Amino acid sequence: MADLRCPNCSKEYVARVARVGFIEGLLGLFYVYPFKCQLCGCRFSAVQWGVRYLRVEEDRREYERLPTGFPLAFSAEALRGDGMACDVSMSGCTFRAETCQPKVGDVLGVRLQIAKDVEPVAVEAVVRNVRQDHVGVEFLRFQQAGKDRLQQFVRFLLARRAAQAQRAENHVAGADIQHDHWGERADGKSPVSVKS
Fold first, then answer.
1. pLDDT at 179 over 90
2. Rounded mean pLDDT of 26-30?
3. CB neighbourhood size of 13 (10 A)
4. Could you tell me the pLDDT band of residue 181, with boundaries at 50, 70 and 90?
5. E-assigned strands of the chain?
6. Is there a single domain that holds both residue 90 and residue 138?
7. pTM for this one?
């Protein structure tokens, strides 16, 4: 799936999503699976020859939640509070409520302070779950400018994660090269035999 790109925005940040309906289930027999762009939200199908995906019922989100940490404020009719985002996607976030606890079903006005030098992203969201001091919300509406800023932030998080994975891969390869550079082998013998 490394070369799979969104047909709408041409970005590589796509995720496999759950099949919906009989047709998508049938297409799965022919290795055609549904995907969703994590940035623009375009849902599309693509052929993945020889790949079989296992159904995971626990998480049916169509956007991947990305770990993060930024402050936010939320409010409802008789509720005002602050929190710290734990993860975010284009469709919602989880945050740790620091001052008060909303209830499942509450509709909140949320201001995401994704960066110090950027205007907060204002979004209307509904509380989908509450666990101890963690609140999961689904974004309902936000203005286009806010959506653009959030999309840029999510793109940054996805690119950073890809770069970290690449650095980790290079570090492992670099460790092997450094190991060879010092003339050691796993079996303890010298890699170069000296004939006298």
1. no
2. 83
3. 21
4. very low
5. 14-16, 32-37, 43-47, 66-67, 71-76, 79-88, 92-97, 107-112, 121-131, 134-142
6. yes
7. 0.62
